[in-house]
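Re-run with default settings, no changes from the original entry. Doing this only to confirm the output is reproducible before filing.
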Amino acid sequence: MQRLVSLVFMGSAIILMSLTTPATAGNNKPAKAVTSTTKKATAFQVDKSQSKLFWVGKKVTGQHSGTINVADGKLDVENNVLKGGNFSLDTRSIAVTDIKDADGNAKLVGHLKSEDFFGVEKFPAANFVITKVASKGAGKYDITGNLTIKGITNPITFPATVAVAGNKLTAKADIKVDRTKYNIRYGSKSFFEGIGDKAIYDDFDLTVELVANAQ
């Protein structure tokens, strides 16, 4: 009986040791735990000196084009995939590039800065904030966000391409905007009947080109 008790005690001790002794590798050293790491999101600060917005506005008798300076922005990337971000524009910097005559150019710029269009004295900035990003692979996305012009905000969705190379990011997006949703109604046939060939189309096209650097 005493021998049986001893055997039971020894067996229990062996089991206890097997449960509490660390696993060892083949060299009798404790095996290293296997861990996984997840790359954190990287914030890319927009370089306003290298970024630009190009605009095209069309009317019945032709079109005009120009630029607006990018004032600020940030894009969030994780594992080289865009996750979110925002950018802002300096509406006071609006320029016309297709009119070479100085007087004609200045006249149109002044009109675009007036309350008929962007009202830049009261609204010196336009902003876009991403609310949803749908990756389509190969650096292509469908981006949804809130666009604010003249203090009015509307949701908008557009295609974009984003490329990350080391600490540098480049992005390009083509955006079509209905100006009447932002109380820019001058020359719109949707609100003024009988203006004929003086009509300006409601939609205008924007091409945004952003260059950003990792922080």
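Residues 1-26, 31-38 have pLDDT under 50 and may be disordered. The first helix runs from residue 2 to 20.
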